[in-house]
From TrEMBL:
GO biological process: citrulline biosynthetic process; L-arginine biosynthetic process via ornithine
Molecular function in Gene Ontology: amino acid binding; ornithine carbamoyltransferase activity
EC class of the enzyme, as a word: transferase
Family matches, as SUPFAM superfamilies: Aspartate/ornithine carbamoyltransferase
Enzyme Commission code(s) on record: 2.1.3.11
Protein's UniProt keywords contain rRNA-binding: no
Function (record text): Catalyzes the transfer of the carbamoyl group from carbamoyl phosphate to the delta-amino group of N(2)-succinyl-L-ornithine to produce N(2)-succinyl-L-citrulline. Is essential for arginine biosynthesis.
Name of the protein described by the UniProt record: N-succinylornithine carbamoyltransferase
Binding locations of carbamoyl phosphate: 47-50, 75, 110, 147-150, 273-274, 301
UniProt entry keywords in alphabetical sequence: Amino-acid biosynthesis, Arginine biosynthesis, Transferase
Length: 316
C-alpha cells in the first residue's frame, strides 16, 4: 500500500480489519519489520489520539518515529503554484514535502478543512501536494474530507461488539455543537460503513445532508426517533452544513442522545471518535454508562494504524 487516504485505497476491507484484530492480540509480533525505517507524523492541527496511537503503532513495528507540529514549529507554508512569496509564507510545500520525504520512509499528515470554501477543501489540495512532492507513502491522519484511520478503528470496534450472525443496524446521529465542525469524520464513517456488512442509517436536522458520494449505501432521515428504532450501534457526531458550507444552521436542541432515547434501540452501543464536549454532544449518563464504546474505539486506533503501517512497510 502506497497511499491510505480513504476506503478506496483498501482493496480488501475484511482482511485489513482481521489484520488489525490480529495485531491487537499480537502487537509486537512484527517488531523487526520497521527496523531502520522512519515514520514522520506531521500535524497542522491539534491531536491527542491520532498522534499518540500512530506513534505507538510505528514503535510496535520497530520504526523510528518523528513528530512535528508543522503549524506551530515549522515555517509558514505556501501551497499556491507560481506564488510570489513576498508576504507571510516562508517555504513552499514543494521543498518542505520533498525534504520530509528524504528524512522519512512513510509520512502521516493531518490537515483540517478551513470551512471557508467548499471546492477548495474538497479538492484536498494539501494532502495531494504532499503525496506528489514527498514521493513517499502517505497516511492521512485526518484530512479536509476524511478520517480513514478513525473509520478503520470504528469498523474494528463494531466487528468486535456485534452479535454473531446478525447484520448490525448502525445509526450515524448528528449531535449539537457550539461551533462549526468539519464533515470529515461523518463523511468517512458513512463511506466505510457503506462498504461494510451493516445497515447504515444517517439522521440529522434539515440542511445537514452530507455530500452524496459518501452516503450512497445509506438511508437518510431527519427523524432521529425513527432512525434509532432497533439500532445496534449509534455513532454520535456533529458536523457543520455541507450545502450551506461550514455554517451552523441550528442550535440542535433535542438532538443530544440520552438514555431515554436509547430505549428505542436494540440496547445499542454508543460510539464517538473523541474529543467530545460533554453534555453538548453527548450526555454524562451515556459517556459514563455501560453503553459507551468511546474508550474502546480510541484503544483500537493503535491497531488500525498498525495494520496500515504494516502493509506500507511490506510494500517498501
Ligand atoms: N480528530 C477528531 C475530531 C476532530 C474535530 N473536532 C474538533 O475540531 C473539536 C473542536 C472543539 O470541540 O472545539 C471534528 O469533530 O471533526
Ligand atoms: N479521534 C481523533 O482523531 O482524535 P484526535 O483529534 O485527538 O487525534
Amino acid at each position: 500500500m502506497r497511499k491510505y487516504t480513504s476506503v478506496h485505497d483498501v482493496a480488501d476491507l475484511d482482511q485489513l480489519v482481521k489484520e488489525a484484530q490480529h495485531l491487537k492480540a499480537n502487537p509486537y509480533k512484527y517488531k523487526t519489520l520497521g527496523e531502520n525505517r522512519t515514520l514522520g507524523l506531521i500535524f497542522l492541527n491539534p491531536s491527542l489520539r491520532t498522534r499518540l496511537s500512530t506513534q505507538k503503532a510505528g514503535q510496535n513495528l520497530g520504526m523510528n518515529v518523528i513528530v512535528m507540529n508543522l503549524d506551530k514549529e515549522g515555517w509558514a507554508l505556501e501551497t499556491q503554484e507560481g506564488a510570489v512569496m513576498n508576504g507571510t509564507t516562508v517555504e513552499h510545500i514543494k521543498e518542505a514535502a520533498a525534504v520530509m520525504g528524504q528524512y522519512c520512509d512513510i509520512i502521516g499528515i493531518r490537515s483540517f478543512p478551513k470551512l471557508q470554501n467548499r471546492e477548495e477543501d474538497y479538492s484536498e489540495e494539501l494532502l495531494n501536494q504532499f503525496i506528489k512532492y514527498s514521493q513517499k507513502p502517505i497516511v492521512s491522519l485526518e484530512s479536509a474530507t476524511r478520517h480513514p484511520l478513525q473509520s478503520l478503528a470504528d469498523l474494528l470496534t463494531i466487528k468486535e461488539n456485534a452479535v454473531a450472525g446478525k447484520r448490525p443496524k448502525v445509526v450515524l446521529s448528528w449531535a449539537p455543537h457550539i461551533k462549526p465542525i468539519p464533515q470529515c469524520v461523518a463523511n468517512s464513517f458513512a463511506e466505510w460503513m457503506g462498504q461494510a456488512d451493516v445497515d447504515l442509517v444517517i439522521t440529522h436536522p434539515e440542511g445537514y445532508e452530507l455530500a452524496g458520494e459518501f452516503t450512497k449505501n445509506a438511508t437518510v432521515t431527519t427523524n432521529q426517533e425513527a432512525a434509532l428504532q432497533g439500532a445496534d450501534f449509534v455513532y454520535v457526531k456533529n458536523w457543520s452544513s455541507y450545502t450551506e458550507y461550514g455554517q451552523v444552521l441550528t442550535d440542535g436542541e433535542g438532538w443530544m442522545l440520552t438514555n431515554e432515547k436509547l430505549k428505542e434501540t436494540n440496547n445499542a452501543k454508543v460510539m464517538h471518535c473523541l474529543p467530545v464536549r460533554r453534555n453538548v454532544e453527548l450526555s454524562d449518563e451515556i459517556l459514563d454508562g455501560p453503553s459507551s464504546l468511546v474508550l474502546e474505539q480510541a484503544n483500537n486506533r493503535t491497531y488500525a494504524a498498525q495494520a496500515v503501517l504494516k502493509r506500507m512497510l511490506e510494500a517498501l
